Amino acid sequence: FFFQAEDGIRDSVASRGLGDVYKRQVNCLKKSNIDFFTGVPDSLLKQFCSYLADSVDPSNNIIAANEGNAVAIAAGYHMSTGRYPCVYMQNSGLGNVINPLLSLAHQGVYSVPMLLMIGWRGEPGKKDEPQHMIQGEKTAPLLTATGISYEVLPDYIEGATEAIDSAVNYLKTRNSPFAFIVKRQTFGDYVQKTALVSKYSMSREESIAKIMQYIGEFDPIIATTGFASRELYEMQKKIKKTTSNSFLCVGSMGHASGIALGVATQKKSRRVFCLDGDGAAIMHMGSLALIGGHKIKNYVHVILNNGSHESVGGQPTVGFDISFKGIAKACGYAQSFEVKTAEEIQKAMNSCTIENGPTMIEVKCGINTRNNLGRPKESPKQNKKGFMDFLMKQFSHSS
Hints:
alpha/beta
């Protein structure tokens, strides 16, 4: 890979061509019996993931439902081949891997060697979003607490090559996972040659704008992490001048649907909307079974499906390979729709009442987020307080 130092000094392009450096580093992994990759994409590992997409067969680069799922896939791969898998993730995904690391891969249980590549969002001393700052501070202590040996991956090619050789030797001799923590700007620029292209013309932002036309002023909205929350926020600020009816999940990917479930069970006189993403819905799909199984009639579950982990680099999900509409029906949702146009959104939204749900609306949309998309100006605590005040004031009669 093309390594870039924090101060901007890079390996000389004249002495090492960009493609050549990437090729050398992947070859280093392959020579060490590491040629199988699985994980959840991360913005700090964007170049790493993009190069894998271009250079590794999809059967050997599985984008997992969640990070714990990736550890399980890696364990299965190792047991069937004897080779060493690489699991990549953002450090926010450590919460999803604690159980399989401790009860599956740990040296004291099944002793499954695998190389972990962990993007270090919220690195101490670096500016980042609040949720990442907490996670960044706890990243190294979490690994220490689980007994996983780790090293910060050097940001120059010779140091990184030496570190990988040392890590592979650890996998061989200890039969235990080893982790690399990857700092911001470790990897240099790389433009993916096989970038995902969506055939759907309506953007996610256009879809949200259309959906907002049919959400009442007393209807709460819980929006998933990533671009969807940011687009909803800007839209509400522009149109309604308030965002108090919206809870914006800045982290906790995959859990917006669960939060909405908790709200819907207590506020039965209002429709409760969950604006979800395909990657987030896949990450914790068990929530769909609970929503459908408990027959939450006032629940409206909107999945904005662009088939992509767009906010962390655009790597594909299996969103276009499955039917959320069909899954919702199988899970007990009372009605489900698959829509692609503004007219179809209107028809589906008009069918949503507090008595005929739960409802699933899968919106298939394009990958075209604008570059000037802002972020919420309020802190997460301010967002929570405003949302709680909204719920208590407007829904006190239904509590």
